[in-house]
Write the structure tokens for this entry.
Amino acid sequence: MDLQDILKGGKTHFTLIDPDNQSPGNAGELAAKAEEYGSDAIMVGGSTAGNEVTDTVTKAIRRSCNLPTILFPSTAAGVSAHADHIFWMMLMNSKNRRFLVGEQMKAAPHLKKMGVDPIPMGYVVISTSREPTTVEKVGEVDRIGEEDIDKAVAYSLTAEYYGMSCVYLEAGSGADKPVPVEMVRTVRGEISVPLIVGGGMRTPDSVVEVVEAGADVIVTGTIAERDPMMLARIISAVKAYQSV
């Protein structure tokens, strides 16, 4: 299934649930709230979650809501047969072969047996924090600072030319600031595939700025876990923009 089928032709919101941070029961409750608030899909992924934890949390989410579930694994251990889709991603700016093709090679045979629908993604981590985020450290990234717009464009175009269905610009969980608006705007102007943006957005205003710059999908994770009512406001902001 192509991401375009999930986008529904407009601005879209995905809620990211980290199995490392949520019990199955809490994950199910959060997914139900996200559906009630108008989110369009649930992403399931964390830095260290293994198969058993991911399985249990994904099943709880499927029981609690009817939204599409999309795996967002950091390693092969984050694959589950209970999801609808998986972002089959390459961490484009990793300096470690493991996150370019290594973990994917481990997971691919299992994925074929599971029948989970892969959505090829070019994952580009942007550095917006004083200290490196977890994904920057674990992924051993080639740093893309807030001023490195040309580098972000180059990695994004590389992903598109490899045939990826989408590009995800990610500031990282708990990032100090979102991906810069000008970077989002420039990347959007250079690529033709859907653009996903996540990390560091904690208010409706910050989300609207990124949407106006050209993001097709907004992903919120940390704020969804900490403040469900702010999640509701953020989703409302995305939907209000979509209806304009």
